[in-house]
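Give me structure tokens for this 496-residue protein.
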Amino acid sequence: MKRFFRFSNQQTELHWRALLRACLLQVLIVVTPAAIASQYSPPGLYDVEHLTLDNGMDVIFKQRSGAHTLSVRLWVGVGMQDFECEHQETPHFLEHLLFTGTSRYSEAELEHLVADHGGSWNAYTGNEETVYQMDIYSRYPDLAINTLYEILTDSIISDENVETSRDIIHREVGGKPSKIRQWFRLRGFGVNGTEKAVLKLLPGVDYVCEGLRTADHITRQDIIDTYDRYYVPENMALIVVGDFEREPIMELIKNTFGRIQVTPSPERVLPSPGVAEDYEQETGTLSPLLSNDAVIGVMYAIPGFWSEDIFPLMIIEHYLDFKLGEEIRIKRGLSYSPGVWRETLSKFGLISIYADVNIDDIEETMGVIRSEIKKLVDESMDSELLEKSKMKILLQNVQGYESNSQFADYYASDYVYFKEKGNFQDVEAKIEAVTPEDIARVADKYLSLHKGVVIYETPTLTTTQFYVLMTIIVVILLSLVLYLYLKSRSPTRPRS
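Here you go.
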């Protein structure tokens, strides 16, 4: 029996209004990320699906059917800044060991398995995260997910694999440092001016180590302890981008990564620098030892990526990079590759304005660098120049995220923000919102000349000086040999 309800006209109107509001709200929930995105944002970049597995592991989906590829990233919340200098290579060490073979496959067999299915894989350990990468033909999502799960949960961390990986890590960092070299390094010899500037600007943070970074002190137990502490579901995220069917891949993820045992997430305390007290200029000590050129510049401490000041600093970085190229390279021919380098971590960052120069051109080039920085701080940037600078960044960003792999890399690099805020920040909209007043405030706050460390990376000897010195040494040695020879040939006088 059907039951009919009778509404008054007012009740009917209220009912439909409520229904319409609910429908509009649902539509806004679905379209908001794409609708509010900047016109310069790569299409769909910020529109992702997010869910959390029962064990606490985050999964981020982005379906893109334009290419028959699948890109998977496994993000782990551990990096070199989680450790003091002596053990900073531990997460890097562990990353290498997860590629050395499982109970089913050797390292070579794993390589063939991925390559035979049109795939490639890699990993990197950063300052605050470790990321495992897999790009493969989209018909093999099961191979991508299963392989990453297998190396994560079944890699053999044997004593033999540990020693093999130790040698590889030493080669990656420039060779195993000898005790003599380490002794000299700890006493300041062989330390370049840039490293000294970082130590001044970031007191209390092991971003640059006084000694040489090495894997010598890291044991197999250290590596296992790191795995047990950091490789837990709530401290990991799986990112899947590309051509895939949602339900089958979701089921696959639940049957692999979803089965990892729940373990308490580590309480990470990433280092935060103290206040710099010394801004005196720095030069290298026997570093570089021999060259005809120098690298000069100014380095500043800046805030971490949580600060809204980062967006004006991004524009300043691009502006000064272009301006130095124009003034130092194009107009004066003083440098081949002047520029600006910026590094931003969660709690701190650095920006360096530099130029490679001939030794005879050091003072002129440094004068130009100082002049451009002072001009920016004192006069800021007019609206027209600001808009041009913003446009360069925005147009580059549009071109920077075209492949599934590039999308996946972006999500991995910005995952910390997503985890904290629940969304990926619209970088393009933040850049568009920067005003001349923001530029003036940020330039004055961070880039005044008295807040930077001037760096002179000048060689201990030029090649000419080296050859002159060698010539003098050879002449002295030859003279000494000749003297000894003549002395040995001279007759011995008899004693009276």
